[in-house]
Design a protein that fits this description.
Blueprint: H1 3-20, E1 28-31, E2 37-40, E3 47-49, H2 52-60, E4 67-69, E5 87-88, E6 91-92, H3 94-99, E7 104-108, H4 114-122, E8 127-130, H5 137-149, H6 152-173, E9 179-184, H7 198-205, E10 208-210, H8 224-230, E11 234-237, H9 258-261, E12 265-267, H10 270-273, H11 280-296
Helix pairs in contact: 5-6, 6-11
């Protein structure tokens, strides 16, 4: 074999060797709910969540085993209680987060302090911001987390199940008479939910109308006088846990209010309504049942 033929043979051998090598992973590019583009070299394997609902969503998307840090009150599923804490959703430890060397941080746009989230970005950490404001957004969040963590099969199945349950609820409540609802988060200050909040979406799903749905804030503070002026037909309160909050009964002094006259003061566990996760459908089912009770208490015409 002459020199020219030897050179060609070597080139062919090198080409064949390169062809057998595994293809390099393409960079993963995503847009988060703030519209910001983030990039990952590969699906995330070391994830920190900065809100309880993000923790719960990550588990539902099949990526709980990738969670290396989270915040206080991340208590569902039970396995989440064992994850190291890096602070609370409204005040987290930047040094602790950096020391864990995450390849992805899931932040909450309207819950986490923007200045602290910006500091995480300034440290060169990859931050994905979430903000599901409508019931249907939960399914999209599951799918996106599945792509971020490389657990698409589990995440997509969970999203499909969520959409199916949501559609069943929507069909079963379509066309029902409207119920004017005051949704109370807290008593001092008196707090409710505005139009962009996912709970307003749940109220509408059940054939309700949020009496403060015209407000642009997520969790506006209102006055007792403003609530009385709207004369809600039902009051739904959450509070801090399983127990019905004592302050819900404070409304009974306002005997001219329709909700009080008809006994329509209801309580739902906050974790079922105030977390943007698949369990919000459990809360919505309870809410829809409560509004049906309110409808049944309307005077006969």
């Amino acid at each position: 074999m002459n020199h020219r033929h030897l050179k060609i043979a070597r080139i062919l051998a090198l080409t064949a060797t390169v062809a057998l090598l595994p293809a390099a992973h393409a960079e993963l590019v995503f847009k988060d709910d703030s519209g910001r583009e983030i990039r990952l070299k590969a699906p995330a394997k070391r994830i920190i969540t900065l809100a309880p609902h993000a923790t719960e969503l990550l588990y539902a998307a099949g990526a709980g085993d990738r969670l290396i840090g989270t915040v206080d009150y991340s208590d569902f599923p039970p396995a989440a209680k064992k994850i190291p804490r890096v602070g609370s959703y409204d005040r987290f430890d930047l040094e602790a987060i950096s020391a864990l060397k995450p390849d992805l941080i899931i932040a909450w746009e309207t819950g986490n302090p923007a200045a602290q989230v910006d500091k995480l970005k300034a440290l060169g950490l990859t931050v994905y911001v979430t903000q599901p404001n409508r019931m249907e957004d939960v399914a999209g969040q599951l799918e996106q987390l599945g792509r971020l963590a490389g657990t698409e099969a589990t995440a997509n199945a969970a999203a499909a199940q969520f959409r199916q349950r949501l559609e069943t609820l929507r069909r079963s409540n379509a066309g029902k008479p409207k119920i004017r609802v005051f949704y109370q988060i807290w008593v001092t200050p008196l707090m409710t939910v505005g139009g962009p909040q996912i709970i307003t979406s749940a109220i509408e799903l059940c054939g309700g109308e949020n009496v403060f749905g015209h407000l642009a804030q997520m969790a506006p503070t209102v006055s007792v006088e403003a609530v009385l002026a709207t004369d809600p037909e039902a009051i739904v309160a959450t509070g801090m846990g399983d127990a019905r909050p004592e302050w819900l009964n404070d409304w009974n002094k306002w005997t001219r209010m329709t909700a009080v006259k008809r006994g329509n003061l209801f309580h739902i566990h906050p974790d079922l309504m105030q977390r943007h996760t698949p369990r919000i459908l459990d809360g919505a089912e309870k809410l829809c049942a409560d509004l049906d009770v309110a409808r049944s208490r309307r005077p006969a015409k």
